[in-house]
Write a structure and sequence with these properties.
The protein has 13 helices and 21 strands. A hairpin with a 5-residue loop joins strand 7 and strand 8. This is AAA domain-containing protein, putative AbiEii toxin, Type IV TA system.
Length: 470
């Protein structure tokens, strides 16, 4: 089975960070939208959605969770995430996972103790439904796991024989040890593909999700943005996708060097040149006269006798060349995600998820980009933003607002007439702040000023004594 189109329909989460419960619907009239913006107050759950998508993507790809994602969970508090997505406009897939963060004390030598934090999966399931009009279809469970029984379902597909028990136990133990998925583990994938009890159509769907979901979803988190903002010559993560002349696909994250000189293999240099060539078609239209180039300074051999290229990435404007590391954080961010955006514009199977898309990007340019994507993108773009310019560009169906209600974090405004300006309606709504699902927890400029004055006096006596004051 070939992946031709991929769209996220909805996400439901519970007990991640400050979101006790939240349902995010990316559809309009049961059709997944191609562009969705999430707006709301600081600390209201926008970034949480981005991070949960990252977690789901890692689980489906059988990757271990990063330690920083552990901080989204409260110790011993059960969290749940459910994503519904559509493949090829034919199969609606539901993936659900319940998990809990555990901290285990480990006794070492001489009575010393250390702690280990890990994620334990309590349940995990993958379901599918065929949406073709001429097919009477109900939801079918491909695989489901429950920790309480340590069994896999449906039982007739996953009989608990002695041989199978060992395979299943290995998958469960590896999940706990490495904080990764159980049902997408190598052991379970191997079992499914060797099984005679699994329908070939279900095998094809499972393998397609396991092999291609993460390859086509790019998650640009605040952590990545923070790396760019450090200005410490750390390579910039360059999200890329391109198709070669023989129709072979290349995709992933390439560490674009920003140091004065960096060593790249011949293959890495080839990827960098391909991606920058692609980017340079678009970047001058966004930032006039700008081109990004990779200059080869010299060559050398590594310990294995392989050729390495000593390179520097530079910016060129109207004949003037400067090191790329000297560019603003905003330009670095645009370059970092531009190849993925190009892919999302032209490929219906590409999904790009960006936290704080507006950060470092000029307001008018942001509006121009969103207008282009809202009219022509074939892929799906999900972003968070503080800048209100997109509210003037996108339709109400394309905007999700966060609320002050931790048990109902995400809503769409349905009471907006076509003649209304969404930005004005939003500003009026946050000023009213009435009801459980209001969009803004009120702040008061007088109270803020008062707090600043009081903060200055906190501990002033102790400080003066420390300085030797009277």
């Amino acid at each position: 089975m070939e992946l031709k189109e991929l769209k996220i329909n909805s996400i439901s989460i519970a007990n991640f960070k400050n979101v006790k419960k939240g349902d995010v619907n990316f559809e309009c009239k049961e059709i997944p939208l191609n562009i969705i913006g999430i707006y709301g107050q600081n600390g209201s759950g926008k970034t949480t959605i981005i991070e949960v998508i990252d977690i789901i993507s890692k689980f489906i790809n059988s990757d271990s969770l990063d330690d920083n994602l552990f901080d989204m969970l409260e110790k011993d508090n059960i969290a749940e995430a459910k994503i519904i997505f559509t493949i090829n406009r034919e199969f609606v897939i539901t993936y659900t996972v319940k998990l809990v963060k555990k901290i285990e004390l480990i006794k070492g030598d001489l009575g010393m103790q250390s702690s280990k934090t890990f994620i334990e999966i309590l349940s995990e399931s993958l379901e599918t439904k065929n949406t073709k009009k001429n097919i009477q279809s109900k939801k079918v469970t491909i695989i489901s796991y429950e920790k309480e029984t340590e069994l896999f379902f449906p039982r007739y597909r996953f009989p608990n024989t002695k041989i199978n028990k060992n395979k299943f136990k290995t998958a469960i133990d590896n999940s706990k040890e490495q904080s990764k998925s159980i049902i997408f583990s190598n052991q379970i994938a191997e079992f499914i593909n060797e099984s005679n009890n699994m329908d070939e159509g279900l095998k094809a769907i499972y393998n397609l999700i396991n092999d291609r979901f993460k390859d086509n979803i790019f998650v640009y988190s605040n952590r990545i943005s923070g790396l760019i903002n450090t200005n410490m010559n750390i390579p910039i993560p360059l999200f890329f996708y391109y198709k070669s002349s023989d129709n072979s696909e290349s995709f992933g994250v390439f560490p674009l060097p920003t140091a004065s000189s960096a060593k790249l293999s011949s293959q890495e240099l080839n990827v960098a040149k391909h991606v920058l060539e692609q980017i340079n078609v678009v970047i001058p239209k966004i930032i006039p006269n700008l081109n990004i180039k990779i200059e080869e300074l010299s060559k050398q051999l590594n310990d294995k006798g392989e050729e390495l290229h000593i390179v520097e990435v530079v910016s060129e404007r109207e004949g003037r060349v400067i090191p790329f590391r000297s560019e603003s954080d905003g330009i670095k961010k645009i370059i970092s995600i531009l190849s993925a955006l190009i892919n999302a514009y032209s490929s219906p199977k590409a999904i790009i998820v960006v936290d704080e898309l507006d950060s470092g990007i000029y307001e008018f340019l942001l509006g121009e980009l969103l207008e282009v994507f809202s009219r022509g993108a074939k892929g799906q773009i999900i972003f968070t933003s503080h800048n209100l310019r997109p509210l003037e560009i996108l339709n109400k169906e394309n905007i999700i607002f966060t609320t002050v209600n931790s048990k109902n974090r995400y809503i769409k405004k349905t009471d907006i007439k076509p003649s209304n300006n969404l930005r004005d309606v939003y500003l009026r709504n946050i000023q009213v702040f009435e009801g459980d699902d209001s969009l803004y927890r009120p702040t008061n400029s007088f109270e803020i000023k008062k707090a600043f004055r009081e903060a200055k006096r906190v501990g002033s006596n102790d400080i003066s004594q420390f300085k030797g004051g009277e």
